[in-house]
Fold PTS EIIB type-3 domain-containing protein.
Amino acid sequence: MIKIVLVCSAGMSTSLMVKKMQEAAQTGGQEVSIQATAGENLSNFGNDIDVLMLGPQVAYMRKDYEKKFVPKGVKVDVINTVDYGRMNGEKVLARALELAAE
């Protein structure tokens, strides 16, 4: 099972994206775990993350997250702004799965 965590400043705006991604995963038959959190709560997930996707509003923190998580084998990316704004869970899930497969 691929474990995906979405991060934003408060963890609230990504909650709707999680729901949309879960719907897309269910439709596509993918086995994934998708959760959202605020950046300051990310340590609660320990090392149990495959893909870390940042909301566009925290894109400026990408380098910090890469320094911390890439050495642990976690793929880090920023969610496409248009896909995020449109809450396109299907496209965001596809990107997360693409990252996990790299």
Observations:
- Residues 2-101 form a domain with the Rossmann fold fold (CATH 3.40.50.2300).
- Residues 14 and 100 are 19 Å apart (CA to CA).
